[in-house]
Amino acid sequence: MNISDRNIAHFDLDSFFVSVECLRNSQLKGKPLIVGGSGDRGVVTCCSYEARKFGIHSAMPMKIARRLCPQAIVIRGDFEMYSNYSKLVTDIIRDTAPVFEKSSIDEFYIDLSGMDKYFGCNLFATDIRKKVNRESGLPVSFGLASNKLVSKVATNEIKPNGQMHVPFGFEKRFLAPLNVIKIPGIGKETAILLLKMGVETVKVLSEIPIEMLQNLLGKNGTELWRRANGIDNSPVIPYHEQKSISTESTFESDTIDLSFMYGALTRMTEKIAFQLREQNRLTGCVTVKLRYSNFETFTKQMSIPYTNADHVLLKASRDLFNSLYERRLLVRLLGIRFTHLIPGHYQISLFDDTQESINLYQAIDSVKHRFGEGLVQRARGLTAPIEN
To answer: What pLDDT digit, counting tens, does each position of 196-232 carry?
Structure first.
């Protein structure tokens, strides 16, 4: 398909968690509202636009947020309710859009290429936006452009509750006056480096020779140059719900050694929890499988608040194992499975976590991603059984 024929819409549910809370309680509308950890050591997960006027933003320590806006209303949040609304919106888009990608719990890319021959892509996207708002009650914004990058930036510029169309050929003109921090993928360190160089706008960034950016940032320099010039050929990946993620271990010798079995359970739970975070997914149900030496097999499951945090999942898996292993017979196999999977990042699932624990998880996952997941493990999980 010719690039000029592509039409990609990026849909974003505005301040999603806050919007859901306002649906549940209309008296919260128009007030500075924060969703996140309730203690001073917690972090802000989401905040209303009224709260943002005080300088509050997501991932900010709650203690600072309260200091900036003492009158803010703080709600711990109900992730199960948010995921249900996300599923509702997903179903609405699935019933309407030809091809769509669910990139997070509150963001979608819709490929409308070819629809301009029938309805007009902007009109079709507008109808989808109206339908989402009408059937879910949630405000939603969209940007429409020839690629995912520009459509996402357009959405961020037009929020809340707005829409914008950037026609083909106008990508660079649209991006040019924006601050470089508006380009997805530019992190804090890169932004500081560019500002030190005097590069504040996307226009200036786009005019830097690609060779210079490559020397400065390596492979990232090439991608940065492409983004600054509004170039993005990444496809919309059709959305398919992954039903589960699991692993199991058959022991070399049948055992009744509780310490050994706890270690195996710990290692397996950590392994697939890391896979969840790598895939930006959360689970709402944990199942433990136990097979005795006589091949009798039992399973037990537990519904939990959506998460991908090791410490939550380890507690659930151990509680399930303790309730299953009652006969004190030799055990041949243990397995664990996560189901009820939804898109979601680690930060947005931990309403009671501290900034320190979030930073710790991010650091551990960074090491695992770079050097292999077996490099960092809890001490209990170091006794590694043989896997099937």
So the answer is: 999 999 999 999 999 999 998 888 899 999 999 999 9
Residue 107 is among the residues annotated as catalytic for this protein: yes
pLDDT in tens, 5-56: 899 999 999 999 999 999 999 999 999 999 987 776 788 989 999 999 999 9
Domain at 244-382, CATH homologous superfamily: DNA polymerase, Y-family, little finger domain (3.30.1490.100)
Among 80, 107, 223, 248, which one carries the catalytic annotation? Answer: 107
Count Cβ atoms below 10 Å from residue 370 Cβ, excluding itself.
8
* CATH homologous superfamily, domain 170-239: 5' to 3' exonuclease, C-terminal subdomain (1.10.150.20)
**DSSP state letters, 185-230:** T--HHHHHHHHHTT--BHHHHHHS-HHHHHHHHTHHHHHHHHHHTT
User: pTM here?
Assistant: 0.74
Helix (H, G, I), strand (E, B) or coil at 100: strand
